[in-house]
Amino acid sequence: MEHNSARLKAAWICLLIVGIGILIFGVVAAVAPGAGDEQLMRADGAAAIGMGLFGVLITLLPFRCGERWAWYAQW
């Protein structure tokens, strides 16, 4: 992956914000499910927590180092 430091920095910051948002949604959905099907919301929350952690870790470690597979994984 071609390194353009300003673009790369903007990209990983945006991806980090999205990953943290997904993680926060998952925690809220798992801890305080809405008035609908509580088990379904808790399951969705657990899945979102896993997806958020996955995105944050890939963004912070391999994506920032410029590894090509991390770029494809984030898509």
Q: How would you describe this structure to a colleague?
A:
The protein has 75 residues and is an all-alpha fold. The chain is built from three helices and no strands. The protein has helices spanning 5-31, 38-65, 68-74. Helix 1 (5-31) runs antiparallel to helix 2 and helix 2 runs antiparallel to helix 3 (68-74). The radius of gyration is 15 Å and the shape is elongated. The model has no long low-confidence stretch (mean pLDDT 90).
Average pLDDT, all residues: 90
End-to-end distance: 15 Å
Radius of gyration over all CA atoms, rounded: 15 Å
Write down the overall geometry: elongated
Query: Could you describe the largest sheet, including whether it forms a barrel?
Result: none
SS strand fraction: under 5%
Task: Point out poorly predicted stretches.
Answer: none
Structural class comes to mainly alpha
The beta-strand count equals 0
Q: Which quaternary structure do these chains form?
A: single chain
Order of helices and strands: HHH
- Number of helical regions: 3
Proportion of residues in helical segments: over 70%
Key attributes of the depicted protein:
3 helices; mainly alpha; 75 residues
